[in-house]
Amino acid sequence: MSDTGAPREDARPLLVYEYVGGDPFFVALVEHFYEGVERDAVMRPMYPVDLTGSKARLAGFLIQYWGGPQTYSEQRGHPRLRMRHNPFVIGAAEAAAWYHHMEAALGAMNADDVVRPVFLEYFARAAEAMINVAP
Ligand code: HEM
């Protein structure tokens, strides 16, 4: 066993999913996210009245994306997120609102300085990629 701090050759990198503590982190993150969505006059009407399924789908997707169980795809198939968002008109305002609620949700989770920027960079990029109307 080396004590030099160098990576061990038999060690695999820790998954983000593991680093944050697994399913409970993503379930709680999504709860916070939808608390924001519920109070947002622009976002709320886009979602179903009952948000139970929406929460499960978003949490399941994020769990899968960050290295956890692939349950989302077992239940929903390939994510094809852009295609699945086609029914909704997503411009810069909607993408900014989505990102804002996710940033607030991360704040509520007290994500540490290691993982917060990793998530924020991803969420910014993903929200931008979902825009499907020209300005
Ligand atoms: C940019 C602004 C966005 C808006 C306005 C938006 C809005 C929506 C709406 C209205 C739904 C349907 C709700 C439901 O599932 O019942 C949905 C589904 C979903 N969204 Fe978004 N979304 C946005 C960005 C994103 C991003 C960036 C991600 C991923 C990082 C994401 C992940 C998902 C997932 C996984 C689903 C469920 C897909 C399925 O399996 O049917 N969304 N979104």
Keywords:
single chain; 135 residues; mainly alpha; Globin-like; binds protoporphyrin IX containing FE
N- to C-terminal distance: 57 Å
N-to-C SSE string, H for helix and E for strand: HHHHHHH
The distinct bound ligands, ions and cofactors come out as: protoporphyrin IX containing FE
- Share of residues in strands: under 5%
Cα gyration radius (Å) = 17 Å
Q: Might you state the CATH topology name?
A: Globin-like
How helix-rich are the residues, as a percent range? 55-70%
- The assigned structural class equals mainly alpha
Would you mind describing this structure in some detail?
The protein is mainly α and 135 residues long. It has one domain (16-129): Globins (Globin-like, Orthogonal Bundle), CATH 1.10.490.10. It has seven helices and no strands. α2 (23-38) crosses α3. The mean pLDDT is 94. Protoporphyrin IX containing FE binds at residues 46-48, 53-54, 57-58, 61, 76, 81, 84-85, 88, 90, 94-95, 98, 126-127, 130. Keywords: Heme, Iron, Metal-binding, Transport. Belongs to the truncated hemoglobin family. Group II subfamily. Its cofactor is heme.
Topology:
Elements: H1 16-19, H2 23-38, H3 52-65, H4 71-76, H5 81-84, H6 92-108, H7 116-129
Helix pairs in contact: 2-3, 2-6, 6-7
Bound molecules: protoporphyrin IX containing FE.
Protoporphyrin IX containing FE binds next to helix 3, helix 5, helix 6 and helix 7.
What would a concise description of this structure say?
This protein has 135 residues and is mostly helical.
